[in-house]
Amino acid sequence: MMKKVDSAVNAIASGDGWFRIFYEGYNNSTGQWCDERTMTDGRLSVNLPTDLVGGYYLVRPEILALHAAAGGDPQFYVSCIQIFLESGGSAVPKDTMAIPSDEYAKNGSPTMTFDSSLLNHDPSYPNYGPPCYHSTAQAVSPPPGLNQTEGLKSPGCVLEVGRKRLLYTGHALL
Predict the structure, then answer these.
(1) Which has the closest alpha carbon to 162: 59, 63, 86, 82?
(2) From its phi and psi, is residue 15 left (phi > 0), alpha (psi between -120 and 50) or beta?
C-alpha cells in the first residue's frame, strides 16, 4: 500500500489516499502463502509503478496472519516507510481507500475470518482492500527542481537505524 503525501515528516498516515501496488495471497500452483516465499532470505522485492507522480510517499508493507482468523483474531503485521520517489510521471491512482476503515478490512468479513486450514478443500481466499494499481505509461525522467528536502541524513552519518544516527567524528562513533 502507498499513499502520496505533501510531507513525509508531517503526514498523517491514517485516512484516505491509500492505494495497493502489490498483492499476493495463497498461490494455488505452489501451495504457498506469500510470506512463505520470504522464508528463504527474508526478502520480497516489489517494483513501484513507473508512472506515479514524483514526491513523498508513505509505504505500508503488511502481512495478514490467518492462523487464528477463524477464531476471530486475524493479525496484521505492518510497517511504515517514508520514501521520496524521483519520477516525472503524472499518475495519481484514483482507486484509494482509508486506513483504518471497514471498507479496507472489516471485522467479521470472510477475509478476516478465513479458516486457512481449509485450503486443501477451498483455495478461494477472498482478497481485501483495493485492487492493485498498475502503471499505464512508461517511466519519465523527473523534472528539474524535483528534489528531496526532508528526511535527509546528517553530514557525517555512517549508519541510521530508526531515528538513531551514528555520526563519525574522526575519533569515535557517537
Answers:
(1) 82
(2) left
Dihedral angle sign, alpha carbons of residues 22, 25, 31, 36: positive
3-state secondary structure of 66: coil
Say which DSSP state 9 is in. T
What are 143's three cell numbers? Answer: 523534472
pTM: 0.78
Q: Which residues 6+ apart lie within 8 Å of 53 measured at CB?
A: 4, 87, 89, 90, 91, 92
Whole-number Å distance between alpha carbons of 69 and 159: 39
> Per-residue pLDDT tens for 9-48?
889 999 999 999 998 887 778 878 888 877 877 777 888 8
DSSP secondary-structure letter at 105? S
